[in-house]
User: Fold these one by one.
Assistant:
Number 1:
Amino acid sequence: MKLNLSAITGNLKLKEYFSFGLLSINGYMLMVNTYLMIFYTDVVGLDPAAIATLFLVTRVADGLNDPIMGYVVDHLPRTKLGRFRGYLLIGTAICTLNYFLLWFGPAWASTGKLAIAYASYILFGITYDMMQIPNASLLPSITADQKDRAMLSTFKGSVALINSLIYGMIPPMIIQMMGDAKLSAYYIIIFGAMTLAMICTTTGVLGIRERVEPVDDEKYKFREIFSILTQRPVFFTTLLMMMFATSASAASASSMYFFTYMLDGRFDVISISSIFSTISVVPTVLLAGWLVQKFGKKRLMLALLVVYALGFAIRLINVTSIPLFYASVLINGFPLGIFNVVSPTIQADNIDYVEYKLNRRAEAGISSLDSFVIKSSHGIGGAIGGYVLSSTGYVANQPQTDLAKFGIVFNTIWMPIITYIIGLFVFGFGYNLNSKKVAEVNETLLQRREAKNSDS
């Protein structure tokens, strides 16, 4: 029996590209990274050091469970919607319910606010896995064709820009408009985010189809998780993403403090900067596929780390200069566009590489590392940000000392510069997949599928 290549490698309809893109419309983690710390300190009234410990303990501990959750998702029974789409719908609904508790449980409680924050934050980590891991597993299961994957990632990256624009512009505008009614502002923002996530996820799931099946139907054993996750390209990709996301989390967690106390509440700068970011990101998202073919994914990733570090470094000329801040946003938009498109395709290559080496298909297992990185980096980055603020003397809703202002600057500028430079060397020396090797892996897997199909 001859293998139908079109079922695996192409002819995707435009509807499917747009539907896949809609799966990036989700502001849950963006809101948590950017606003939860200042919400807990300035609205709920919790101590920044206590929140730092909360982030560190719960996120890192929960992140270690992500490969186990990935194993569970890989071994769940197939639904009518495929291996991942049905569980993405269920996971999003459950996560949305807990997301409400994460924000307003501590705010409504008269006592035990920190305990409620711990409980809801731990639950958020678990329920976020139920949503994020199936989502991240979809790309390699939709198609095995490199061009189709690049196009799907381009659409998802393009829609991610809209997602960033929404959560970069609207929340600060609402917060500024509501003035002292901070809790009411967050009601509007969080309920809006929950509604938008459910609508876009449902629409996206119903518009795509899973095509790629494992060469070997036998599921990998639990004891094989370690060997899968420590394959060289998987390990060093995860390490780079961890550094990248940790610096971003530290900067995001302190960004609202920067605009509140360094720029005297100029939240309009956040909204305007989102426009600048979109202007610079769009060209690179559209050109990312061509850039990958010309320079390769690895060299492109190394180049973007250099540009990111330089983009933050120019702000050190005058940390309170708004024009320099806008210039930094413009510069950093170029590598961000590349990163949004290239990083999912690198992870898809890693999934194929593991199947090539170990004859085991582990989309959810490897994709669980994305969730691990997101949560652990938020825990580490948020903890660093909180401890720095606490150690430099931050006091909520008061004018800050010069030392406290330095802590805010360290979190928002110096942390990204340092981690991007370290990441440059880690990924440069550690990642070992080039274009030639990826083509070899794809060809080998295609031959194995043909052989399996012929035997059946």
Note: Residues 6-455 form a domain with the Growth Hormone; Chain: A; fold (CATH 1.20.1250.20).
Number 2:
Amino acid sequence: MGSDDNDPNEAMAQFERRARDLLRAQQEAFLAAVTAWRERASKGALVWPSGPTGLSPKPEELAEASYAFAAKLLADQSRFMEELSNAMTTEEKHKD
């Protein structure tokens, strides 16, 4: 085992790298599936389901919704980290 095994900063960095790698892998798998589906659909093997006009979200709308969701997750994580930091401080710091 290396000298960084007990370093909390290195442990957090390693967790973040693994989480981002996992997310990227999921995104790549999803994109590959969508690409394969679109290729089959363009050959007539699959047909896009028809529904009421105007109800399907456009790609731009999906992207905006994804960014809005990510912003909410970041805000939640920021709030959590602030509360965790406050919970971990000593009472002497809170008496200011």
Note: The CA atoms of residues 50 and 56 lie 9 Å apart.
Number 3:
Amino acid sequence: MQFGGQRTDLDLKPIGKPDNILVKLTDDILPQPEAVLVHGITPQKTRTSGMSEAEFAKYLSGEVFTPDTIAVGYNNVRFDNKFIRFLFWRNFTDAYEWAWKNGCSTWDFLDVVRTCRALRPDGIKWPFASDGKPSNKLELLASVNKFKHDAHDALGDVKALVELARLIKSEQPKLFDYLLKLRSKDKVAPIVNSGQPFIYTSGRYPSEWQKTTVVAALSGVPERDAAFVYDLRIDPDQYKNASPEDLLKMWTYRPPRNMQPSGVQGAGEQAGAVHDAGYFPIKQLVFNRCPAVVADLRVLDKASQKRLGLHMEVINNHFKKLAKQPDLGERMVRAMELSDKKRQPKLVLDIASVDGALYEGFVNDADKIKMGAVRAADAETIADFEPGFSDERLNLLLPLYKGRNFPASLSADETKIWQDYKKARLDSRASQYQAKISELSASAGLSKPAKHLLTDLADWGQFVQTAGVGSVART
């Protein structure tokens, strides 16, 4: 519904005006009422002030992701980037090239912040959540470091992120530059595959550890673009006799959120303590997701070791033990193969599932050319355009693309497809949507602006349920 962005140079000085774009919500979507109460953007506002998804996809690919652009966000690798990929997929644009082609790349600043807090915290004020645990929320970092942040606004987040990046670049320039250079998988892979322990910061690790530990890659894993890494805080001896089936159970077990790993050894504890059953020390590290890794363990000075609860004699002892299990990586590979067999059957491709079918395979070159023709077509030329894709997913996507962006171009048959698709999609959510609006409307102390938002949402629900009913299709 909203996109915010600001281009800068490598010194984080702004280039040109920022982007603050609304994207029209199409009439096959019911937004989450709770979210609208937070950000205040109604579907009606996007329809009157926004651009269509097709227009927005063209703007992103043509004006934002220009050659040599580094797309930076806060948790963007796991969140925002997925939105971009599926936006491009729905709008006949390559879902991946924006992130790597023509010198482009992405960088996730959340793990930069986590690494800075863990290893080089000086010069920055660090907030804590209400429960006393360390927190790296952008709004809290903005508050304690005294720079403006319009929370729950895309452009507000962007401006705060630029200020935070400037602060870290100023106070910890070596770490900033080091991690910036590591955004490429070609830089990450040699560190991970070196056979030596390295520092790894990830949201997967407990906040008590500042999301940071020392890991080593497991051997015997043939994957070129990822590796299994072992958390060397944990004694690996307990996995000597673990079968692939055992490892799979541990891999997929999800402990209660308040359960934290125990058995992590202090300096005076005897080697061999076991960890809590809820914590599994093996994680997959994917090279092209901007992982925050540091090769040189000398970065862990005495102050850092104390702050993170890391004891190097324990780490070194566990690394030696891990070396005596050269087959642990192979057992993990077999565990993952078992996991693949237990997964849901391959997606049944139909009009209802095609929006989410991006990961069912790569589009071939011939179809990519035809995708370009779809993007180039206007409301008139697309009406009779029949590209005849070899990829059935794209044939199924076309009437949805036309319905969302050029509804007047739909034929009688396509109109029925579009209306049936919308009805099925909306009917599956309508009762829950209306119930949530009623529940929120009955809340005590609801403000007048919030009441107006909920009224608009109720009106939107009625509108989409009747949109297109009785319309005359193109003949």
Note: Residues 263-276 have pLDDT under 50 and may be disordered.
Number 4:
Amino acid sequence: MNQQGSGRNTRTLWVLILLAAIYGGLLYFRHGVTGRAMLDGFIGVALGLYICSRPAANAVDLLFAERYKLRLITGGWAGLGWLALNLLVFSVGFAVIVLGTRQLAAAAI
């Protein structure tokens, strides 16, 4: 499933999920990454946007650059798994953005 050159790098997507889990774990167990809510919020929002950018880029590539492969990807379990992984990574990235925004709101109070 890890094909070089076609944008289907699942290892990168799993690493992004791991980064999100580390950020969330630090917020939960240490109540912050740096100890400053404003900086933790900026880190969270930036990290979340970066995490969301990979599946979004994969979707744009799939829709425009590799339009003919759409039928091949959605036709088998491996392709559907890759699409599901992209959706998962995008959802995790959105959750990190929400956590970062929450930290920013807490700093403003």
Note: Helices lie at 10-30, 37-65, 70-75, 77-108.
